[in-house]
Amino acid sequence: MKNTLKTAISNDVLKKVKELPKDRAQLLLAKLISQALPNGSCKDWYCAGHNKGHK
Amino acid sequence: MFQGNTLLNPITGVELNSLFNNVDFVQSIYTTRVSPDPSLAVERIARFYGVKPSVSGDNVSDMITIREKLVEIASDASILYAFALTAPHTHWPVGKPVIYSFISNKDCYHIGHLTIKEDCFYTPTSFVFSEDGPIPYEWADETIVIDKHELQQCYEIVHAINSNLLIKELPIGIAIDFRFRNSLKKWPQRSLEFPSSNPSHSVIQRGLVENNVNLNTSMEQVSWHALSELLYSFSEPEKLLLTELSALVEKANGVIEKEAIISNLVDAILSEKE
After folding, report:
1. Backbone angles phi, psi at B96, to 5 degrees
2. Are A42 and B220 in contact (CB < 8 Å)?
3. A49 pLDDT tier (thresholds 50, 70, 90)
4. For A41, nearest residue in chain B (alpha carbons)
5. Which residue has the higher pLDDT, A31 or B123?
6. Which residue has the higher pLDDT, B184 or A27?
7. Would you say A43 and B193 are in contact if contact means Cβ atoms under 8 Å apart?
8. For residues B144 and B101, is the Cβ–Cβ distance under 8 A?
9. What is the percentage of chain B residues whose pLDDT exceeds 70?
10. Quick check: B133 and B159 in contact, CB under 8 A?
11. Distances, alpha carbon B101 to alpha carbons B94, B186, B271, in Å
12. In B125-253, alpha helices (H)
């Protein structure tokens, strides 16, 4: 999985992102993450059957 | 009636126990604001807004509003990395406070009904909104060190957000995300919460979905980012880059591969800039 980046992102795109100032690169990544990934998740205890009846 | 604004401070274990002996306080949290499990918390948001929140939360009007107000209020934009918008919920009976504690030898947090030490201090970290000011519903114990100046900045912002909201009984809360970092202004670390073999608490582990096991059962998204579009102001070349990166991530096969791509990208870019 660690090689995913190398195979997925062209050197050209990576270079352009690396050339951004840190605060701009952070914002770009923050936007990318907010679009693609849940900010925070937890397992649904009761659906998962864990700690059932614990309430 | 208690005053929520007075609760934006660390309090002793004695004070925390006393708070939970106050019927008004307990009712103000759990009757309408904090749901008894994550699914119900998300359902409550869906009922209130007529739509289930998307991954970004961009389809929920008050998430947009709160994010915009955060940008207006914060004098230092980097403090906005401290916040997450939440679907307030608990996994435990409502009579006792929910506490975070850092377990250093296992590099994880426990959260739940942990032992309250009377003379220790407990720092409020998660809040619901109310007419009486923001009301905390989760606290960090002394094993969790949060920079006092940054914490104070966060409290002032949470208080101001609460004051600015037209409707105070929102199904959305706000949390200070202190997990696995020594400054709230640093890049947020991803983490996941799991049930523990001990039913009185669950375990929060560092890292990505791919690093964690037993994920075949359902995961519920219970928090959303707090960064407004107003903050970005991307230039045209930046927008183009974002489009290229987004297209790439969208091609990924499932959330694990998405996380791997983004994680490697974060490592590749930010580690060079430290």
Report:
1. -130, 155
2. yes
3. very low
4. B221
5. B123
6. B184
7. yes
8. yes
9. 92
10. yes
11. 19, 20, 28
12. 148-164, 229-232, 236-250
Let me know: does B265 contact B245? Beta carbons within 8 Å: yes
Q: Are strands B99-103 and B135-140 parallel, antiparallel or unpaired?
A: parallel
* Whether A8 and B252 lie within 8 Å, measured CB to CB: yes
- Chain A stretch 2-31, residues whose beta carbon is closer than 8 A to a beta carbon of chain B: 2, 4-5, 8-9, 13-14, 16-18, 20, 22-31
Question: Could you identify the residue written with the tokens 């009976």?
Answer: B93
Nearest chain B residue to A16 by CA distance is B241
- Cα separation, B137 vs B127, in Å, equals 6
d(CA B84, CA B87): 10
What is this structure's pTM?
Answer: 0.88
Q: Residue B146's CB: how many other CB atoms inside 10 A?
A: 19
- β-partners of residue B189 are none
Across-strand partners of B220?
A: A42
Q: Which of B38, B260, B265 is nearest residue A42 as measured by Cβ atoms? A: B38
Residue B89 main-chain phi, psi, to 5 deg: -155, 165
Decide if pLDDT at B45 tops 90: yes
| φ and ψ at residue B98, rounded to 5 degrees | -95, 125
